[in-house]
Specification:
The complex is a heterodimer. Chain A is built from five helices and three strands. By secondary structure, chain A is of the alpha+beta class. In chain A, a hairpin with a 6-residue loop joins strand 2 and strand 3. Chain A starts with 12 loop residues before the first helix and ends with a strand. Chain B contains nine helices and no strands. In chain B, helix 1 packs across helix 2 and helix 6 crosses helix 9. The two termini of chain B are 31 Å apart. Classes of the chains: A alpha+beta, B mainly alpha. Chains A and B meet through helix 1 and helix 2 of A and helix 1, helix 2, helix 3, helix 4 and helix 6 of B.
């Protein structure tokens, strides 16, 4: 066996053709998937930090469904979503998503759990963690300077 | 080495060299550029698909892997190949997210379903073999599937593929050999359940 472990001489010509087709088909799929991710990024371009919202999909308990962006905020949203954390920055969203976890009732500003999400928090940014009644979801409030 | 395999390897070498160069330039700047991220996105998607065998999950894995690349870019040692490091990021992400996915019962898009219908330009016999190959590939263990994909389909050398998976070359050879045997057996049988 040579350096490439090239066993393809063992394949028939039809099989080699199919191997190449399989490789192309996988590349085609990967290219399409990459384009989908890239398009999501473009949609997010130009958005303000406050609109960068990563939302954990509730449907079927599936994986986080989030929009991909290029700003650090959106990368942070992605990281939070992947960690099972819901990122909310809009006040109206806050009241809908947090339910009884109002600032008066359930705010947890310790930021300890935030560390676990891997969010890259700048010194001049303030994040608040709010547990919800759903144990899988923690709401992260993004409070910018204006707040 | 036959012509198809050599051509695939040349394509992979050319694309890989561009990614390595971009990565080294970006490493000097301290963060990955959009160009680099765009260049590695298809690689991450492909590796995630082969690693998980699951279309839906692989997009989540690729997405999270790219986040980790951005976050951990400075941990890549320039002495090693960037693509080898990238593969480890994708593999670790797939492993981490796979643990979570085990809790799910939702039926997901399987690898073989993603590449059909077959290329209409292929002869009918080759299309049959392609479908069988895809199903056989799906039925392999993750390590066998990855070895088969990296070496026989994408044209990585045994040493490269072994380094990407952090295993020694003889172990890779075993996985590859078993993968080839399974795939050929499936083709001989004409169908895979």
């Amino acid at each position: 066996m040579n350096d490439r472990m090239d066993g393809t001489e063992a394949w028939s010509s039809e099989e080699r053709e199919a191997l190449a087709a399989l490789n192309s088909a996988l590349d085609d799929w990967a290219g399409g998937a990459a384009t989908r991710l890239g398009q999501s990024e473009e949609e997010e371009e130009g958005s303000t930090p406050d609109s960068a919202v990563g939302r954990r999909s509730r449907a079927g308990g599936g994986h986080p469904s989030v929009r991909v962006g290029t700003s650090r905020w959106v990368w942070g949203a992605l990281a939070a979503a992947a960690a099972g954390v819901l990122l909310v920055s809009d006040p109206a969203e806050r009241s809908r998503e947090t339910g009884s976890a109002t600032p008066e009732g359930g705010m947890d500003p310790r930021g300890v759990a935030l560390e676990a999400t891997g969010l890259d928090v700048a010194a001049d940014e303030t994040f608040l963690l709010v547990p919800t009644r759903d144990p899988d979801i923690t709401v992260v409030w993004i409070l910018n300077d204006a707040d | 080495m036959n012509e198809d395999h050599a051509t695939r390897h040349q394509d992979h070498d050319r694309a890989g060299a561009e990614v390595e160069e971009l990565a080294r330039v970006d490493r000097e700047r301290g963060r990955p550029s959009e160009e680099l991220l765009a260049g590695i996105r298809p690689l991450a998607c492909r590796w995630a698909l082969v690693r998980t065998g699951d279309g839906d999950m692989s997009e989540d894995v690729a997405q999270e892997a790219l986040v980790r690349v951005v976050r951990s870019f400075e941990t890549w040692s320039r002495e090693g190949r960037f693509t080898t490091w990238l593969y480890r990021v994708v593999a670790n992400t797939a492993r981490d997210m796979g643990r979570r996915a085990k809790r799910e019962t939702e039926r997901r898009a399987r690898l073989s379903a993603l590449i059909t219908p077959a290329n209409p330009l292929l002869a009918p016999e080759a299309q049959t073999v392609l479908r069988t190959l895809a199903q056989a590939m799906e039925s392999l263990s993750p390590r066998q599937r990855v070895a088969f994909d990296l070496v026989d389909l994408q044209g990585y050398s045994g040493a490269e593929a072994a380094a990407m998976q952090q295993m020694n070359e003889s172990t890779l050879r075993v996985h590859l050999s078993r993968a080839r045997a399974s795939v050929k057996a499936a083709i001989r049988a004409g169908s895979v359940t």
